[in-house]
Structures are given as C-alpha cells and as structure tokens.
Amino acid sequence: MKKFFMFITASLCTLMLHAQWTADSLSNLKVKDGSGTEEVVPLQATTDDGYTYISWFESNGGNYKLMMQLLDKEGNKLWGDDGLTVSTHPTGSALYVYDLAVDYDGNAIVAFQDERNVDLMPVAYKLDQSGNFIWGPDGIVLHDSSATFELAPAIGVLSNNDVVIAWNATATKKWIAFQKITSDGNVSWSAAKTIKSNSKNYSRAQFAEIKDGTILISYIQETGSFPSITSTIFVDHVDADGNPLWASPTKASTFSTSFFEWPAVISDGHGGAFVAFNSGAPGNLTIIDAFVQHIDSDGNKVLGPDGAEVAVFTDNHRSLSGISYLSDSDQLGVALKVLDNAQGQAGIYVQKLDASGNRLWGDTGYELLPLSSNDYHEPFGIQRANDAWMIAYTEGSVTSQEFKVVKFDLNGNLIWNRMISAVSSNKYDATMGNYKNDQLAVVWEDERNGSGVYAQNIGGDGHLGVIATAASDMPVFPADLFPTLAHDQIFLACDERFINGQFRISDLNGSTMLSQSITRERSQINISALPDGIYFYSIRNGSAVQTGKFCKQ
Fold this sequence. Notes:
41 strands, five-stranded mixed sheet
C-alpha cells in the first residue's frame, strides 16, 4: 500500500511539474528541449481567451519537422508533453521566415515552407484547440506556377476567418504572390494574385488586419543589386477578392530600409496602419535611425513624406524593437534599442508619439535601461498591459544572458523590473504574447541544454507562475514559493507587504503541517520532516493573500 501511495504521489508530482507556469525563474516552462535534438525558431500567438499557441522547428535526420504546443492560461500543456507533430515533410537543412496566427474563433494557422514537391513552396495548416487538422493532415500547398523558389509566407486573417497568405516568389525576378483560403480550407483563386514588375523586385509581405472583410498588405520594393539594394516600403488595400481598393499603392516613406529589415506593421483600428522601420539618420546615413509612418484608410500619409523620426541623438544608433498603439488616445508607443557608435553598448529607450508624430517624451525618449557593455540589453517587443506597457529583454554578454520584463506606465514612469529567467545561457528569437487574463507569455529559444524552447508568464503585478484568484475580491499581491516540486527545502519570496504576515502549509485534509511568521522578503524553509505528498500553502498579511500548492518528493 505504501509503495502504491508513493507511486501515486510521484505521478501527481510529475503532472504538477509539467502542468503549469512556474514561479521559479531558475526553471521556466520547458516547452520542448529534447536530448539529441534541437528545437529552434519558436513563434507564439495568443487567443482572445488567453491561450498560447507555440510553434517551432525540431531537427529530424538532416531536416526539420514543424511542431506545435497549446498552453492554457495556467500554462498547462494541452497537446502532450512533447507537443504535436504538424509536418515531417522534408525542409532541407536551412530554415526561413515563417508565420503563426490565430483566427477569431481561436484556431491556429501556421504557414512555412518545405520541399515535399522538390522545390521550396509555402504550405499552410489550420488546427483547432483540440489539435484537429481543419485543413487536412497535409495542409494546403501554395504555389505560383511561374516560380521556382518560394518562401517566407505571411498570414492575414479576414473578419470572416478566411485567410490570405502572401509569400516571396522567385524565378529570374522576385515578386509577391498571395492566395486566399476559406475558413473551411478551400483555395479561392484559380491562380495566385501577384505584385510584380519587369524591372523591380518585391519581397517581405506583411498584413494589417481590418475587420470589414478587406485587408492591408505591406511589402518591399527592391531596386539595384546586392549589396547596394534600395528597399522601399509600400502599403496597399485589397478587398476579399484580392483587388486593390486604392488608385495606387502608397509609398510609406521617401527613406529606404535595409535589405534584411522587416518593418513593424500594425492596424490603427480605423482602416489604416502604422509602419515602423529603420533607416539612415538624416544628415548621417551611417547612423541607424527609427521612423514611423501612419497611413490612413484612404492611403494618405499622415506623418509627412518621410514619416516621424522616433528619437534624436547625436551619435547613438536607434534600432526599432516594437510598436504599440493606444487607440483611446491616438498615441503610439515605440520601444528602441539604443547603441553607442561602435555598437558595443546597448540600452533600452521608449518614446511616445502623438497623432501628428510629435515626440511627447523629449527628443531622446525615456531611458528605461542605460547603455552598458557589461549588461548588454536586447529588447524583444512592447505590449500594452491595461494602463501600462511591458517590454521583455535579455541582459548579459554575447554568449550568456538572463531574461527580464520591465513595466512602466503610459507616462513613462517605471513600475517594476522583474527577472523571468535567471538561467545564464544564450537566448534567441524571443516573442511576447498579448496581455490577457492579467498576464502575458514570453517564448524563446534557449541553449541551457542544447537548443530548446522555453516559456514564462508574468502577471501585471510582476508575479511569476499561475495567477491565483482569491475567493473574494481581494487583490493578488506578488509572493512566490518555489520550487513546486521540492525535496528538503522550499524558498519563499515576497514583497514588503507580506512582512510580519503568516506562512502556512496544510495537507489535503486542511490540517496545518507548518506555520511560521514572515520576517524577510526571501526565506529558506526546511520541509524535510514533512511526508512526501501534495500540500497547499498560504501567504497572508491582512488583505494581502497568496495561495498555491507544491509537491514534496
């Protein structure tokens, strides 16, 4: 009987270990980090109810297979511990840009390229939250018959859940091809629509979604030859049949961007879009500068022929990290990585622009983190969190970084700066999810154990781990216990509001097994005397309360 109980306890503890977000920044949620394989290039997409789709490529005998996982808002893996295999068709040894999106029903659409038909061609899959393949087990292959090399698909979701996918198509020239797939998986047009020219190349399509059955598409017009390619950004408005609605595409700026840059494009919620990009600074093209253009629903450039310059420095480079639109105030937040002239030091700045492109936080914007060579700062996007913004970033050296999230209010005042991954390792390809259920998720590639994919949530109050809901309307304050799978010691971390409060451990029957006062923000607690099993804990001080559970094994 004792052996049976120990087996059940171990099984439950294992489920707990793999089942939800962790409060331990030294652990993080392992999406997939297999022995002898590498998991790379993760993407994520957030549903309206706060679920997180994650996709990645996994090495597979000289090729890569496309894998996916779905996490609920507590971080539970809904598609098995190793995830769901989407495709094992050959990809070749190189990986290219791909895309992941959700539709308005909470389904996932993923588009990438493979060599199932010898040449690289885009392919798209649609999966529901139960892991069913809505467009069939092999997805839908997309192809322009004039092309011999096709890659970098981008996904746009129409208001009726039809999908438009655009990609780079190449033969003697390079052009944009795009095709519509209905929500139930029918290819709409007998041949792909194209954006092409006999004298110019086109690439890097992206979409800004409009909830009226139409869509905005941005792309790059390329002239010249490598390495002297001039890349100019254009935006066009097309209807559900792929027909242009403007007299001609709008040239976003007289300034060009780099041959490898992908501009940031987001909807303004009124039929237009914001386009943010890097270019050379006026008067000194060797300095990287950041610009934003607003194109309205009629195709007019709101911020002048060039766009608005986000920040002005004498010598420092300004590299765009992300943009976030405040529709209620018609203002735009822009996250920047600012570097010294030699690009050996990096800090994080943020700027707020009004509807006319005026810099509301001064010429340089607000300094969130100063330039540093010892703690090189690399930001990965910006997301609105109610009346604040959050930016995820790595901090460290070229070969070893930690992950943090900084939160600041809409006036630029720092609220908190929290560690989300204290593991020192190389971290790449990070993305931030949308802020839902008082939290957001950060997903990244991590070399702590080869190449794997990890994720961590963080709440609006800086709390890591499952966001607890109190029985009453009491607010939840930041306090954590870790690890949730423990042996002889557990660690309690809390802020000053819990000092002089009470920490209590109870068994599954509610009997108190340990109780002690909280005298400091970090405490080590000996639990070696507790029998193996699952326990509840509570951390209380007046109206401040945090509860949870852990497993002693």
